[in-house]
Design a protein that fits this description.
This protein is α+β, with helices and mostly antiparallel strands. The chain is built from eight helices and six strands. A six-stranded antiparallel β-sheet has the order 1-2-3-4-6-5. The longest helix has about 30 residues. The protein is elongated, with a radius of gyration of 44 Å.
Length: about 290
């Protein structure tokens, strides 16, 4: 009998465990043997080529699905797109009533104001609208001649009085056939006002209760409607509402022409500000309408 301290020989293990043999018949004993081979059940086996083809077909279908979704999204986006009607802007004076072109109250807009915000500015109140659209009857001086040469189509006028009751102004919306010819008409008003004698741009439109006519005009200004489809400009002439005439500065204050211009500058600035306010409103109107 070997002693405990004596070393036992190492136990020998087979190099490779026996592999399972075929699956036994129902009720038969399991016999270990060679590698297991599944029985052929008659179904076709998938091959690498078929798997790769399925992956490619699935990817192509996904691309078609994404492309179709993009087309649908584009169609939905186009359904909300607004396309400008150029003819509406070209014939603005025919497509909108005079009360829309010349609002009942007018004032300088807030620079931070958005396009869809309500028109609540005040400062000037409309007191008269002319039914005549003749360019010759609405405009005067060198501006009338220049507008005729550029093909003036129509000129609508309205008279406003400021909220203090001290100043009156007649505004004219001058329409042309081509938007390009109206781009600098407002600037021409300033150029002509540099002369020693003022050359006013708009004939005064009389209104009940005020003394307002051509003789009391004291300054003129203009501004262009900043829209590439709207062929019009706005010009205005302003002066005292009580019939006082600006006249000429007496000597020695008025011996130089620039001093005379300085005396008229407040009236010219008033007319220009009023023309600018209406031009901004017309630009907003043409952007919203006719879509």
């Amino acid at each position: 009998m070997p002693q405990p301290w004596q070393q036992q020989p190492p136990q020998q293990f087979p190099q490779q465990p026996p592999q399972p043999g075929p699956w036994p018949e129902p009720g038969g004993p399991y016999e270990p043997g060679g590698p297991y081979e599944p029985e052929d059940d008659g179904r076709p086996r998938r091959r690498a080529g078929r798997v790769f083809g399925g992956v490619v077909a699935g990817g192509f279908g996904l691309m078609l699905l994404l492309g179709g979704g993009a087309i649908v999204a584009k169609a939905v986006s186009n359904s909300h797109q607004e396309i400008r009607n150029k003819e509406y802007a070209h014939n603005l004076w025919r497509n909108e009533p005079a009360e829309t072109l010349f609002p009942a109250a007018l004032g300088r807009q807030d620079p931070e104001k958005k396009e869809n915000d309500p028109k609540t500015e005040r400062g000037w109140t409309r007191v008269a609208i002319s039914p005549d659209t003749s360019c010759a009857k609405a405009l005067s001086g060198a501006v009338a001649k220049e507008a005729a040469q550029r093909g003036c189509v129509a000129a609508m006028r309205a008279t406003y009085v400021d909220d203090t009751g001290g100043t009156a102004a007649t505004i004219a919306i001058v329409m042309f056939g081509d938007p390009k010819v109206a781009l600098d008409l407002g600037d021409l008003v300033h150029d002509k006002a540099d002369d020693d004698r003022p050359d006013h741009a708009v004939h005064a439109l009389a209104a009940p209760g005020i003394t307002w006519n051509d003789a009391v005009r004291a300054g003129s200004g203009g501004y262009n409607v900043l829209d590439i489809y709207t062929p019009c400009a706005v010009v205005a002439s302003a002066g005292p509402v009580d019939g006082r005439k600006a006249g000429r500065l007496p000597q020695p204050w008025g011996k130089r022409s620039y001093e005379q211009r300085m005396d008229r500058e407040p009236w010219s600035a008033t007319a220009e500000g009023l023309a600018k306010s209406l031009a901004w409103r017309l630009a907003d109107l043409t952007n919203r309408g006719g879509a």
